[in-house]
From TrEMBL:
<feature type="domain" description="HTH rpiR-type">
    <location>
        <begin position="9"/>
        <end position="85"/>
    </location>
</feature>
<dbReference type="Pfam" id="PF01380">
    <property type="entry name" value="SIS"/>
</dbReference>
<dbReference type="InterPro" id="IPR047640">
    <property type="entry name" value="RpiR-like"/>
</dbReference>
<dbReference type="InterPro" id="IPR046348">
    <property type="entry name" value="SIS_dom_sf"/>
</dbReference>
<dbReference type="GO" id="GO:0003700">
    <property type="term" value="F:DNA-binding transcription factor activity"/>
</dbReference>
<dbReference type="GO" id="GO:0003677">
    <property type="term" value="F:DNA binding"/>
</dbReference>
<dbReference type="InterPro" id="IPR036388">
    <property type="entry name" value="WH-like_DNA-bd_sf"/>
</dbReference>
<dbReference type="GO" id="GO:0097367">
    <property type="term" value="F:carbohydrate derivative binding"/>
</dbReference>
<dbReference type="InterPro" id="IPR001347">
    <property type="entry name" value="SIS_dom"/>
</dbReference>
<dbReference type="InterPro" id="IPR009057">
    <property type="entry name" value="Homeodomain-like_sf"/>
</dbReference>
<protein>
    <submittedName>
        <fullName>MurR/RpiR family transcriptional regulator</fullName>
    </submittedName>
</protein>
<dbReference type="InterPro" id="IPR000281">
    <property type="entry name" value="HTH_RpiR"/>
</dbReference>
<dbReference type="GO" id="GO:1901135">
    <property type="term" value="P:carbohydrate derivative metabolic process"/>
</dbReference>
<dbReference type="Pfam" id="PF01418">
    <property type="entry name" value="HTH_6"/>
</dbReference>
Amino acid sequence: MNDGVAMAPTERVVGLFDGVRLTPTQRRIAHCLVQHAPAVGYLSAAEVAELAGVSQPSVTRFAVALGLDGYPALRRRLRELTAAAPGPATAGNELQQAVRAEIGNLDRLAEQLADRERLAGTGRLLAASRPLPVLGLRAAAPLAAYFAYFAAKVHPDVRVLDDGGSLLTDRLEQAAEAGASALLAFVLPRYPRETLDALRAARDAGLTVVAITDSPVSPASELADVVLPAAVGAQLVFDLHTAPMTLAMVLLQAICDAAPAETQRRLEAFEASAARRQLFLG
């Protein structure tokens, strides 16, 4: 991590789990801790257990799995990690703070992108999927649509899945039957149950699941083969999706880089068609 990038409390809590192999139950506890930072350092083990929907002994075992003596030690560590640190993100009014927090989210995303090969490999995986289904329900639907709008200019068959219900599994299975090998899913708070059900259905259909989500320990992490985290801003009444949107377009660049000749051919064909039909003024 770049020393010049201040870490948000949630990012510091996520760092507790780096390199630790967590069970599904422990992932639920970890996600609970991230979602309730910074107040989590003042909760009892019983309160954490209730919030996470697990037993109190599970919370104690979770603390031990992190290499700590027990929950009291974990709580002390959480208090240290979530202590408010004054800086640019805490200056100004609440609207300015929200925007500065988003700048911090983008800075941390930039640090993650230092591993270009991982993103390049994901780009190749999605570029090779014909068709390419793109899932986004409820709050994530606009991100899926925005990504798909541009992806369709360089990929021959992009299918947006933005409606839930019983037909969603049908459409996933139809995409797999048509030759799809991967699914790109946008999984953002508050994590619609039908989105997670769709990820299970995609895996059952043999698709490799790539998830853009808000945290490495979000509910999607248990169901995705590739997890690409980008923090969501939660300072305003409704969430800010600046970092996930940016990550989506960076991933699309990786898809373009995976097949540069085909990308160039398709873009030139689109531009010729747009000019012939006079689609744009500029």
